[in-house]
Write a structure and sequence with these properties.
Blueprint (H helix, E strand, L loop, with lengths): L4 H13 L16 H7 L1 E5 L5 E9 L4 E20 L2 E11 L2 E3 L8 E10 L3 E3 L3 E2 L6 E16 L4 E3 L3 E15 L2 E17 L3 E14 L6
Antiparallel strand pairs: 1-3, 1-13, 2-3, 2-13, 3-4, 4-6, 4-7, 5-6, 6-9, 8-9, 9-10, 9-11, 11-12, 12-13
């Protein structure tokens, strides 16, 4: 069973309170632990069944705005990370998302948003990385900026839309293990407007939940 974020937090908090671990602990990690693997740098495969984007979709048709919470599942992706001392660096992140069907009741004729791909705009680093005393679990927080590539499919062809920059988005990262494999949980959220088109269609209150497991790289 993978290390949960709650358990990781309890481990790190207890160790810190006891003086067993601090930010920037300079001790050498034990071999083959998640800490040793992450310090060397690793790529983790995104697990589609446990990764999703949630966002509030808003449509104003003149008689008031209608809004609904939409869950968009992932269809793949990867994340590359590296650490040193108290610093966790997310070097690259890419998540492919399933298409979104917009029904005719929202937009006449209906349409499909397709080719959805979230990518880290630039590498980011955090300076609050804390490891448990056995080097098996860690927590860190970071602010991300993500680029959203997407296209609109009207049934007569797909047309790319302008790339959207989302962020900064606050995120918490938990590192653990499942068997011999390193795992990474990332929870990110950005309350408020994320994107709007002519004041008619809008996307608000974005949240991203991602779980990765050590594996070969997919498209970043």
């Amino acid at each position: 069973m993978r290390t949960s974020k709650w358990m990781c937090g309890m481990i790190v908090s207890a160790a810190t309170a006891a003086g067993c671990v601090t930010e920037g602990d300079l001790s050498e990690p034990a071999p083959d632990t998640p800490r040793a693997v992450v310090e060397a740098g690793t790529v983790l495969r995104v697990i589609p069944s446990q990764t999703r984007l949630e966002i509030s979709a808003r449509v104003d048709q003149g008689a008031g705005a209608d809004a609904a919470r939409v869950t968009v599942p992932s269809v793949g992706g990867a994340i590359r990370v590296r650490s040193a001392e108290d610093q966790l660096v997310i070097e690259a992140l890419g998540v492919d998302l399933a298409p979104i069907d917009v029904p005719p009741t929202v937009i006449a004729g209906g349409l499909r948003l397709t080719g959805l791909h979230l990518a880290l705009a630039a590498p980011v680093a955090t300076h609050d990385l804390m490891w448990s005393t056995d080097d098996d679990a860690a927590l860190a927080s970071v602010a991300l900026e993500l680029d959203l590539d997407w296209a609109i499919d009207t049934g007569r062809g797909a047309y790319p839309l302008t790339r959207q920059r989302l962020g900064p988005i606050a995120a918490v990262v938990a590192i653990g293990r499942e068997g011999d494999a390193v795992t990474l949980d990332l929870d990110a959220w950005a309350p408020g407007p994320a994107w709007s088109w002519a004041g008619i269609v809008g996307l608000d209150d974005l949240s991203l939940s991602l779980i990765g497991i050590e594996d070969s790289a997919e498209r970043l």
